[in-house]
């Protein structure tokens, strides 16, 4: 059975004091707690990666970077390499978020290079893909998703389902308060899994975790998690408040308990 992932993408929010306060709340609630079948992840801004690794030790929360350079090293002012993330033992990194595609002109090819750089360092990419509203309204969702998968994963070798995760994030649902219905998400998640089975193997397609992102919050998480191909959320706004983030972990734990009963 695939784990349920509750991944918070903090984007460019929170300074040091807020980060420390959040970590203290997480520690108080999660330290020593069994998180069977649930994998919580948080992606803070770069300056706080190492601090959060330390602050959240023993809580089960894993740390992700929000971005990485497609270059290995060199004169790239402001960039951070996969080797640098590896030197901090960062286990996950988001790539291809629609905000990076839109505001930093990241193409599928650049995202592919980032995935290669991360895999070389044994960091697991969380690859974001998704269509915009116009594309959905024109019935182009499948074409867009397939093109993004083809482009971002061309010549990318995956040995195990745990090598990476995919996050389906319809752009029209990110930060808009408008969530995809469970059925809309499921349809795309199924499509992604089928593509992975053809491109890789049935085993990889069955085991890889496919997250949904787009205005996920405690109020809608339960119904989304009922979808068979949906393995958790990549969550922006609602992950910024410790009580909401913890509530979503509880909902995921209940879901796992329900499956096992
Ligand atoms: C995101 O940042 O990936 C995201 C899905 O944001 P939100 O949950 O705020 O829509």
Order of helices and strands: EHEHEHEHHEHHEHHEHEH
Number of strand elements? 8
Low-pLDDT parts are none
CATH class descriptor name: Alpha Beta
The number of helices is 11
CATH-derived topology:
TIM Barrel
Polypeptide structure, described:
This protein is α/β, with parallel strands linked by helices and 261 residues long. The protein has one domain (4-260): Aldolase class I (TIM Barrel, Alpha-Beta Barrel), CATH 3.20.20.70. 44% of the residues lie in helices and 15% in strands. The protein has 11 helices and 8 strands. It has helices spanning 16-30, 49-55, 82-87, 98-103, 108-120, 133-137, 141-153, 182-199, 202-207, 218-225, 242-260; strands spanning 4-9, 38-43, 62-65, 92-95, 124-129, 165-168, 209-213, 232-235. It has an 8-stranded parallel beta barrel with strand order 1-2-3-4-5-6-7-8, surrounded by 6 helices. The protein is globular. The two termini are 14 Å apart. The model has no long low-confidence stretch (mean pLDDT 97). Phosphoenolpyruvate is lined by residues 9, 11, 169, 174-175, 213-216, 234-237.
């Amino acid at each position: 059975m695939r784990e349920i992932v509750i991944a918070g993408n903090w984007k460019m929010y929170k300074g040091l004091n807020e980060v420390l306060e959040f970590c203290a709340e997480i520690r108080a609630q999660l330290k020593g707690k069994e998180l069977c079948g649930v994998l919580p992840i948080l992606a803070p801004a770069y300056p706080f990666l190492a601090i959060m690794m330390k602050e959240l030790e023993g809580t089960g929360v894993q740390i992700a970077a929000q971005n990485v350079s497609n270059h290995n090293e060199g004169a790239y002012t402001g960039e951070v390499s996969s080797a640098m993330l590896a030197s901090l033992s960062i286990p996950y990194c988001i790539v291809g978020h629609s905000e990076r595609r839109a505001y930093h002109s990241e193409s599928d090819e650049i995202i592919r290079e980032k995935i290669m750089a991360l895999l070389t360092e044994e960091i697991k990419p969380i690859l974001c893909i998704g269509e915009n509203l116009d594309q959905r309204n024109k019935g182009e969702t499948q074409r867009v998703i397939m093109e993004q998968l083809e482009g971002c994963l061309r010549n990318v070798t995956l040995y195990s389902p745990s090598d990476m995760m995919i996050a389906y994030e319809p752009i029209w649902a990110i930060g808009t308060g408008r969530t995809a219905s469970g059925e809309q998400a499921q349809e795309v998640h199924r499509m992604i899994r089928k593509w992975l089975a053809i491109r890789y193997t049935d085993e990889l397609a069955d085991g890889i975790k496919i997250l949904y992102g787009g205005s996920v919050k405690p109020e809608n998480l339960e119904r989304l998690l009922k979808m068979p191909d949906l393995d958790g959320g990549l969550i922006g706004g609602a992950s910024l408040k410790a009580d909401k983030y913890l509530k979503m972990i509880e909902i995921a734990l209940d879901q796992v308990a329900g499956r096992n009963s």
